[in-house]
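Supplementary Note 2. Why include the ligand at all?

Several targets in our set were suspected to adopt different conformations when bound, so apo predictions alone were not considered sufficient. For every target with a known small-molecule partner we therefore ran a joint prediction. The input for manganese (II) ion is given below.
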Amino acid sequence: MVGGAPLPQVPRTMARQPHAKYPIKKLGLYGKIVAEVFLFLLTTKKGYIMEHTLPPLPYAKNALVPHISEETFDYHYGKHHQAYVTNLNNLIKGTEFENASLKDIIKKSSGGIYNNSAQIWNHTFFWNSMKPNGGGTPSGALADAINKKWGSLDEFKKAFQASAVGNFGSGWTWLVKKADGSVDIVNMGAAGTPLTTGDTALLTIDVWEHAYYIDYRNLRAKFVEVFLNSLANWDFAAANYGA
Ligand code: MN
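The joint prediction is reproduced in token form.
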């Protein structure tokens, strides 16, 4: 670099322009090295810390009223989801994960970095697992797979309801696609995510109490029932199944 090798990603003429503004000859060798290093950091990806950001919601905060209130989104999205993003950005500083993608961090990390990164991905997936006027019925290959496994959508709903209600403590209940194309329901605790198991996530419900306590208090069963009948985004699930 100091020897004058071309700077990555920036045309030489552009990269050299800032130098013209300074009396670079008077800086001496040390000054030149500092200038080159500064320019290198400025113009290559590695020079930046990759800040993770809170993804926008796929709908307005009041779009799921009366099933999920705007107040729940203020807390669950605005406070909880945001806190996982803030925590992760703080935790990865100075670690091997500083410039890694969210999915890579989830697959390779453990402890607090895993918990916060997985919770970021899970919550984004959960917001997309719902839509205004959701519920209804899946179609296409996903509907076939559900019928093959449970016999009917109603039987699937009963099984999903029982799993989500029985998922002890804080966690996630997932509809997943297995490697052989079949579908299944998987309960996971804490920040569990199918990204680490090889299954493909199709649809999920957050069964941490913070997901339903404002609107349903302790009634998780009611929350799961409303999710299945009025919120589930089967278009999103079908797209994930086909992917
Ligand atoms: Mn949550």
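The longest strand covers residues 171-177. Residues 76, 80, 123, 206, 208, 210-211 surround manganese (II) ion (CB under 6 Å). Comparable summaries for the other entries are listed in the accompanying table.
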